[in-house]
Amino acid sequence: MDFPALKEFGLQDYPFICAQCSYCQIGHGACPTYKVKRTDSYSGKGKMLLARALILGRISPDDGLQGLADAIYGCTLCGGCEEVCQTDIPFVKIYQVLRGEFMKRGMWPENMKLAKETVLKSCNIQGLSQMDRIEGWSYWTPNEDDLLDKQGQPADTAFFFGCSSSYRGVSIQATIATTLILDNIGEEYTILGEEEYCCGAPLIMMGDFEGARTLAEHNIAKYKELGVKRIFTNCPGCYKMWAHEYKEFLDIDHGFEVLYGYEYLADLIKQGKVEFNTPLNIKLTYHDGCDAGRNSGYYDEPREIIKALPGVEFEELPHNKENCYCCGSGGVLRAFDHEFAGDISKLKADDVNRTQADTVSSGCPSCIEYLKDQLPQGGCDKVVKDLMVLAAEAMGLTWDGLDEIYE
Ligand code: SF4
Ligand code: SF4
């Protein structure tokens, strides 16, 4: 059987490369969905075998397509299989392209259709108004006027907030922290505010590449109007879009330099521009979000920031860096099956509980929001704080909502 989308992206031969060694199921870290389901099709190996059997006609679409679809959507796109597999199969890309294939065959799950409609209608995954995009942080942040004045102003550098970091209670803490840090040291940047649209990551993760194009083109056009040359974002999902996936899936070459926000901060620290003067007095551990870590390779920069923070005793998670467990919310799994995502987060809670840390941090506002929500349900009561927030606190910066902003 044919998967035209796999052919279009030159991926049709990869399912035949898998050597069936099962390392993607049992390797250190490896696949969180397999760890929860203990069913072959929820690992890289199982998905490659199903795709192979379908391509060769060994099973019919009636037997196998729904099973493959369930497994393809029941995946956090965490890249764990790509990390442990000794072949060069681009698993995450294959899963996204197959999701697109299922969309074209009318096999998209109902909640994916709803999510797509929401993003395209509202220009954000939350389904809220664009006005609300500035409501949360502008209510809490002490630099509200300065920040609102930056909206739509020409500048070389732009801060792309991302939907989570604009709307979601806990996630906007990192947005506020970032703007306070940058304003404190006199860095210039512009923001789009109400004119910022979703980067399109949810659509690309769901396999609707053309839907994502309209959103991407809007933001790119706005930045070109403002003369922007460099974009930074705290959201590793947005980062991945801007840095790689517009080119990979949409063939868009926007020409901007793209920085991950925590890479930007690590660089400012290296340049001596950031001064930490307030000991935090915490025992800290760190969660490498999948899109920042495995899918983009940012392991050192967050640890450079942590090293520079005063009063921090740092302990790695048992599964860290390339072996770090997904928090459970990746790959739009939360929209597809929130209970399944919740079960995955319990793996993370166990891992965090195995440290002596009193605080868990991450360089991903979306992971922070999910960890804050889910860790207590997995029996883990550690404090959850974004690394950008810890950095702001260590600079002596504070704001009214620091301990108050929740969903
Ligand atoms: S680790 Fe790679 S080669 Fe081994 S079973 Fe998994 S996908 Fe196949
Ligand atoms: S991307 Fe992650 S969740 Fe999906 S199959 Fe690979 S290891 Fe499992």
What's a quick, concise take on this entry?
The chain has 407 residues and is of the alpha/beta class. The protein has 21 helices and seven strands. The strands form two sheets. Strands 5-4-6-7 form a four-stranded parallel β-sheet, with helices on both faces. It has a three-stranded parallel β-sheet with strand order 1-2-3.
Detailed description of the structure:
With 407 residues, the chain is an alpha/beta fold. Helix content is 49%, strand content 7%. The protein contains 21 helices and seven strands. Helix 16 packs across helix 17. The longest helix is centred in the middle third of the chain and has 17 residues. It is globular and about 65 Å long. The model has no long low-confidence stretch (mean pLDDT 94). The structure holds iron/sulfur cluster (2 copies). One iron/sulfur cluster (SF4) binds next to helix 2, helix 4 and helix 6. The site of one iron/sulfur cluster has 15 residues, from helix 3, helix 6 and helix 7.
